[in-house]
Design a protein that fits this description.
3 helices, Lipocalin, alpha+beta
């Protein structure tokens, strides 16, 4: 009887060790999260929405402004494409800019002003696979207000 129990114990031990050694480690297949540079450069960005002082101002922007396309390259350069509609026929179709992250990647500097009354430095609210949401204080009618702009892929 001892021999049967010992054999059963050894068999159980062998099976247990086999299952443990063959288990799949799910953590090895998890991709590393993308860096902010990878997120901002993976595709072009198009205007989606804008608020100033918490109010939606998208309807006040001209169609020729809302169809612009922003492209960021990983080497710190980029282009603004006027899109199908140009606000001024004499403007070039594309304009280059330089960009970089500031303040521990919480701010985005773009060497060109994207909006009247604004600056070249934006606070990054969200930067994800599908959204780039930035904010900055702009001067409207002599008053400083927070503007939030959403771009999407």
């Amino acid at each position: 009887m001892k021999k049967v129990l010992s054999l059963a114990f050894l068999s159980l031990l062998y099976i247990s060790l086999t299952f443990v050694s063959c288990s799949k480690d799910d953590d090895d297949n998890t991709p590393a999260p993308k860096t902010k540079t990878q997120l901002i450069t993976q595709s072009t960005w198009r205007f989606s929405a804008a608020t100033v002082g918490g109010s939606d101002v998208s309807a006040f922007l001209q169609a020729c402004q809302k169809d612009n396309i922003l492209t960021f390259a990983s080497n710190g350069t980029g282009t603004v494409d006027e899109g199908p509609l140009k606000c001024n026929a004499g403007d070039p179709q594309t304009s280059p800019f330089t960009w970089n992250f500031l303040s521990n990647e919480t701010q985005l500097f773009i060497s060109t002003t994207l909006f009247a009354g604004g600056s070249s430095t934006f606070n990054i609210v969200t930067l994800s696979e599908t959204q780039l949401i930035v904010s900055q204080n702009i001067t409207v009618g002599g008053t400083s207000q927070n503007a939030v702009v959403t771009f999407i892929h």
